[in-house]
Structure formats: C-alpha cells, structure tokens
Specification:
By secondary structure, this protein is α+β, with helices and mostly antiparallel strands. The chain has 2 domains: about 1-50; about 60-160, Tetrahydropterin Synthase, Chain A. Helix content is about 50%, strand content about 20%. It contains 5 helices and 4 strands. The chain has helices at about 1-45, 100, 105-115, 120-125, 130-145; strands spanning about 60-65, 65-70, 80-90, 150-160. Strands 1, 2, 3 and 4 form a 4-stranded antiparallel β-sheet that branches. Strand 2 (about 65-70) and strand 3 (about 80-90) form a beta hairpin. Helix 3 (about 105-115) crosses helix 5. The chain starts with a helix and ends with a strand.
Length: about 160
C-alpha cells in the first residue's frame, strides 16, 4: 500500500507542475496571439478602407462681353441686352489659367450664343421659365457645336428686353 500511496503522491506532485507550466505558456502565448491578430488586422485591414475622394475642382467661369441683339419679333423692333458667363469644367481636373486655353474659342462661343438668342421672341423670354429655357437652349447649342468645350452652366449677369 505504501507503494501505491507513493505513486499517487508523485502524480499529485507532478500535476501541479504541469498545470503551472501550461498556465505560464497560456499567459505568454495568449497576449502574443492577440497582438499578432491586432497587428494583422491593422496592417491588412487598412488597405481595404476607402480613401476619401479628392475635393472637386470648382469650375472656371468665363465671362463674355455683353451682347445687344435684335429679337425675332415680327410686329415690332425689340432688343435684348445680355451678358453671359459660362461655367467650364477645367481640363485635366486641375485649376488652370483659363485665358490661354479658352480664349481662342471665344469667337465661336459668341457666334453660337448669337445664333441661338436671335431666334427668340420677347414674349417667349419674358414668359415664366423663359430665361431657364434660353439657358438650356444655349447649353445644348454649345455642347453640339463645341463638344470639346465642357460647359457646365450658363449664367446671365445682365438681361434686359427693350420693346
């Protein structure tokens, strides 16, 4: 019996030593595994995060000289005094000096505007929504005649109908 008691005492003495060794390894390995997982998520997960889009480049505004045109009224002489500014998308997405690139196009732009405006009658322009329809007509004509000229919007800076 003494031999069996000695064997169980040896096993009992060995078990706490093994348990202590396992606990030590667990205390060492668990933080290492957690740190490696966090580092992997931080380094690999950051690649998949979307980058914020660059801020949009504001359009370049091309201010044209004023126009005085005869309108298409048959019964009377009517005139329109008009000043136009065009919002143009900068080429290459960068802000640039518009005078060098756009200046050669100004005569063709002015001709297009004159061709459109002289077809309108005063009552059409003075009707509700008339100016908005004229803007859309100008945009359509500029896009058709000058497809390389990226006009975003038309602004009227002066608008006077004289009958």
């Amino acid at each position: 019996m003494a031999a069996t008691n000695n064997a169980t005492l040896a096993e009992a003495a060995a078990t706490p030593a093994v348990a202590r060794t396992r606990r030590r390894w667990a205390l060492v390995l668990l933080p290492l595994v957690l740190a490696a997982g966090a580092a992997g998520w931080f380094l690999l997960g950051r690649r998949h995060l979307p980058r914020p889009a660059p801020p949009p480049v504001p359009p370049v505004v091309l201010q044209l000289d004023g126009f005085i045109v005869n309108l298409a009224d048959a019964d009377q002489m009517t005139y329109l005094r008009l000043a136009v500014a065009l919002a143009v998308t900068p080429s290459g997405g960068k802000k640039h000096d518009e005078s060098a690139e756009l200046k050669p196009l100004v005569p063709e732009i002015r001709d297009t505007i004159l061709s459109v405006v002289t077809q309108w009658r005063s009552d059409e322009l003075l009707a509700p929504g008339g100016k908005q329809r004229l803007k859309q007509s100008l945009l359509d004509a500029l896009h058709q005649r000058l497809p390389q000229f990226p006009v975003q919007d038309v602004y009227f800076t002066d608008f006077l109908v004289q009958r």
